[in-house]
Predict the structure.
Amino acid sequence: MPIKIPMELPARSVLENENIFVMDEVRASSQEIRPLEILILNLMPTKIDTETQLLRLLGNTPLQVEAELIRTSTHQSKNTPEEHLLKFYKTFKDVRYKTFDGMIITGAPVEHLEFEQVDYWSELCDIMEWSKTHVHSTFHICWGAQAGLYYHFGIPKYPLDKKLFGIFPHTVERKSSILCRGFDDVFMVPQSRHTTIHREDVEKHPEIKIIACSEEAGVYIMATNEGRQIFITGHSEYDPGTLRKEYLRDKDAGLPIEIPKNYFPDDDDTKEPLVTWRSHANLLYANWLNYFVYQTTPYDLKEIK
């Protein structure tokens, strides 16, 4: 089934070339079904790349999805054209009186700051508080997951000795979780972060279930009861070349960066990266949309509470 997005969004041509079914507003309105309404709070600086990555995964399921993009109003993006933001993005004040089946809060490259030092932290707190009564299931990614765990439960983040960077093996710890239905015994996940959370801090909160983890990368998937809040510490949505862009950017700038683990064949950055996480990424998002959004969300979104 299709994902409904604006006709002129740059992601549209990319997704159509990948045979992902994209639908315009006219055709969508002729179908007598209610699409899932998914709000995406995009905190990443390269917004066009991130929106394309997420829409690819949301559009590769049997469910019709209508995606809406928002950004923070208290931070000025320097890496996305203003005309793109004005045309395709809203701010929180534009949607705060609406309700949504699901919401995605992306990561952000602000790990070096304490949460309260982030210029849009107050606005993000308002959005996360609002999500508890206006969104059926909220999906937090990387720094967005750390921010959500800190705001909702007071769980802190800690600096790493060096950047966790590459593709790492993970395992499902909570076998009964349908969020991981169909996962292999070992599955690969891109990680790119300078901070982490500690398992013992999460375990102090019985309402949070640890679902998947990695010996090297730590806790990966956590969820509250019934999946109203899901926290993902990695970047399963990444394109094949995303880590290469990050690596070459830092390498060319003379910054301390190691070659991403388990990514380039023979650790040779002149070779094409091996994509080992795509099937996991599609399963993760399909399971979230199906079991934690579509199967349980009220038909009348006004009933969300």
